[in-house]
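Lab meeting minutes (informal)
Scribe: AK
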Amino acid sequence: MVRTPPQVLTLLKHLQALEIALHDPVVRTDTEALAKLLHPQFLELGRSGARYTREDIAGHLSSSEMQPQIWAQDFSLQVLSEEFGLLTYRCAQVASDGSLIRHTNRTSLWQHGESGWLMRFHQGTPTQAFEPVSPPNQSAASLQRSAIEGNGE
């Protein structure tokens, strides 16, 4: 059995909280909060295949009236260097009836710098449906916002 060093687990928890914070409708519609999480040269290859910059994301999300609830699970981290971490996970949107739709594999490249960890690259790829490991945790939003505020780690 391969054991993960404690510092990697700590970083995994931190980056997972930052990632999940980006799923929070309050954060998604706040351009200042997005600027604290997305690198100036941020690039996303969306689930649809479209390309988005940080400015595209901030403009699109802040003008969107309805933000979907996102379910995420199966987070994994590969530490590429002291400066870069590659986070992978699976997610889906939560439909109004509570079912999961638009299942997606996600990959995010996080870069550490003077202002903390910033997402440098993100990609979504459609995938087969999966069963959630547990019901969505509605109380996680405050913990996620705390992670943003303490992002200098």
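Next up, CB showed the second protein from the same session:
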Amino acid sequence: MQKSYTIRELAQEFGITARTMRHYEELGLLAPARRGQARVYSAADRTRLKLIVRGKRLGLSLEESREIIAMYDPEHGNEQQLRRLLERVREQRVALQARLAGLQAMLAELDAVEAGCLASLADVDADAEADAEAEADAEAAPTRPARRRANR
């Protein structure tokens, strides 16, 4: 007898919600059997779900995952499926490298702005300290009474 799974078991295993699984079902990505109102997922459904979740992690759209999963053809070594997946992996890598370069440039800009802010704050702190010292010196210095000038 083949192992079957509930929606709760698979949702928990793959870290997704039951609602997400029902969405995949609505899109035709999953087709569980029914036992009354309950959905019963087969080992094949579990494998499809595993591939869908992996595709999402790789940045594939649900439609791209559907296309690649539909290419499954073990009689011919899955050559077309593997070539299409390899193509998408390479495209995704190029896109991610471009995003990474952009993020690295943004981080460098943030570092420069942070350094400028820290330098400005150091100047402000130094000015405030100098002002406080001058004020303290002025308060500590003896004051001479003002001389009155005699009216001549």
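CB comment: The mean pLDDT is 90.
No objections, moving on.
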